[in-house]
Amino acid sequence: MENSFNSNDPIYEAWEVEDPLGRDRETDLVVTTTRRALCRMAFVAAETAARFEREGIDHDPVAWMMTPRRLFDGESALDACLDRTGFKRAVILHGLSVGLDALPAQIDALMDDDDDFEFDDVEEAFEQSQSPGHRGRMQVIGGEQGSLGVPRFPTPVRHPSRPRDSAQHCAQRAKIAGRAHALSAMKAHP
């Protein structure tokens, strides 16, 4: 996958970048989004730049963010990473250093498909720390401002104990083995 970027590929022909120093125009595309989506895009931009620097990749990270990619079904990372799926694909691509572009199916095979939870452990711990009488790590301080403070005492996070040989554990191990196989196949056939 290291040589997966091909500037002659038709997918990279029709793309345009607005001049960031230019004045906004009435014809500019208006994007309505959430702060969470902006955080996803900022995270991918930072990870892209860090990876290119770390691995000595001679490619502009901003150009990578702005260019349409097969990984994002022909969208640019700038647009696709506002969505959770595009974000996860970019994080996996850069986290595993498997090239500059990939087929979505290759990366999706590595994604976690366990999205049937309401809260993860961190969110649950935060919710617990906000309960009355709990001297938790995260506390709202500053009255109406709603900023977070970190007191000096630790909060124990409870971890549910699961038997190591449970059906859920075995299924998880099989899923991890399948992802490892998919990653090996991707690296063997770029």
Automatic annotation (TrEMBL):
Location of the region described as Disordered in the Swiss-Prot/TrEMBL record: 145-169
Protein name: Uncharacterized protein
